[in-house]
Amino acid sequence: MTMFLNFEILQHEARLKNVGDLKRQPFYRFLHYTYPLHAIGFGVFLYALGGFPLLVWGLGVRSVIFLHAAFGINSICHTWGQQVWDTGNLSQNNWLIGLLAHGEGWHNNHHAFEHSARHGLEWWQFDITWYVIRFLEAVGLATDVKLPTETQKNRRAVMVTSNNSQISDKKELDAEVSNGRH
Ligand SMILES: [Zn+2]
User: Fold this and answer.
1) What is d(CA 10, CA 33) in angstroms, rounded to the nearest whole number?
2) Residue 135, pLDDT score
3) What is the chain's mean pLDDT, rounded?
4) Which of 5, 21, 107, 152 could form a disulfide with 148 if both were Cys (CB 3.0 to 4.6 A apart)?
């Protein structure tokens, strides 16, 4: 079922236009169009290595945990946690999903600064995806990495109360985000 679900997601993503740079590279096209074969091949590898128990734990249980963590971002993180930014929705920062979903659980941060490569904006907000991006930046494989500016953070902070200033601030923020460099 996981495989079919992923295949549907792949078919949907094949229509997306926002990864044009990746689509031009043969290596990523190969990964994209052969993904189901990788999953099947990995299952065969696990079965050969450790039999049925390793297949169940390494492919079945692992996929279920991964999918629940991923879906938890849009369900748990819109129900339980802390809201530190004024985002106009119910998004929350949830440390448990932050751990399980590799930093994506700092979801109020994400909604406040959707352009930001970093979700865990505080040093104590564990965000392994950000650590990988920092590494890729350090070795020159990632460039133009975007982060929210202090001005943007001040404008999104929960203590902003005046409706008029919020509206004008959000317009300025959107303008900054569309130009957005850190
Ligand atoms: Zn959300």
Assistant:
1) 8
2) 98
3) 84
4) 152
Distance 150 CA to ligand 1 centre (A): 22
Q: Show the CA angle centred on residue 18, arms to residues 20 and 87, nearest 5°.
A: 155
Ligand 1 midpoint to CA 134 (Å): 24
**Cα dihedral sign, 40-131-100-9:** negative
Question: Ligand 1 centre from 75 Cα, in Å?
Answer: 8
Give me ligand 1 centre to Cα 109, in Å. 10
Q: How far is the CA of 111 from the centre of ligand 1 (A)?
A: 6
Q: Which SS3 state, helix, strand or coil, does residue 82 take?
A: strand
Q: Which positions ≥6 away from 2 have C-beta within 8 Å?
A: 39, 63, 64, 67
Question: Residue 59 has what DSSP assignment?
Answer: I
Q: How far is CA 95 from CA 10, 73, 108, in A?
A: 29, 11, 11
**pTM metric for this prediction:** 0.69
3-state secondary structure of 63: helix
Q: How far is the CA of 74 from the centre of ligand 1 (A)?
A: 5
Quick one: what percent of the chain has pLDDT higher than 70? 78
